[in-house]
Amino acid sequence: MKIAVMSMGLACKTVKSNPKTIDVVSIQNTNRSYSDYRTIEQKAKNCHVAKFDDVWLTKHEKRGYKLATRKQIEDILDWVEGKDELIVHCKVGKSRSAAVAYLIACKDNDPEVAITILDKNFHIPNEWVVELGAEILGNQRVWNVFAKNFPVYGDI
Question: Any residues with CB less than 8 A from the CB of 73 and at least 6 apart, and which?
Fold first, then answer.
């Protein structure tokens, strides 16, 4: 499967230029809506929407943010089965989408190979999402390879 990690803006531009040809995992903020979300959903071949925020600690929920749930990540990993070309996007294309794309790549590849779809100088995969995915995939190496290649956020 060909996987591209993108910002919302680039994903919108890409599906508008190639309507109904690319499947999209659209990771959307819970408290904000953008017109690009609707365009992506309409122009994608198929679109799976997951709404969670770019947070990784349960204390962030006290401020109104929503962590990704195990079910959301399971649903994404199930939905991508059989897809040939996939865009995974979030608002900036840096954290949530990077984590999800890595997990999708880990379904069919060794984590050491899967991690190469990410740019260490740009991506900062959401560690909560990676932790959930490693549990779902039943592969501790998914987490270990991630932790080795990307710095820890810290308790922000």
Answer: 100, 103, 129, 132, 133, 136
